[in-house]
Design a protein that fits this description.
By secondary structure, this protein is an alpha+beta fold. It contains three helices and four strands.
């Protein structure tokens, strides 16, 4: 898993159309950052997975189920 000391490696970097701004948290799947979505002009949360999680199909399937918006799951109206 990515350690807290590695958080600075992502903070300030562009990942696709996102610019990682600050680390929000970390867990078993990866590290979550507040990021600026340059396409939509808003702040979003992005999760950065460590390499060992991106090559594991089972983990990828679990992660893809989590990427839906809360409104799609009935959580936000």
């Amino acid at each position: 898993m990515m350690s807290a000391k590695d958080a600075h490696v992502v903070t300030g970097r562009r990942l696709s159309h996102y610019e990682a701004q600050e680390q929000l948290g970390a867990g078993g799947m990866g590290v979550v950052y507040a990021a600026r979505d340059e396409t939509l002009g808003r702040v979003a949360a992005i999760k950065v997975l460590p390499p060992e999680k991106t090559s594991d199909e089972a983990s990828g399937g679990d992660f893809c189920g989590k990427r839906r918006r809360p409104s799609d799951r009935g959580g936000v109206r």
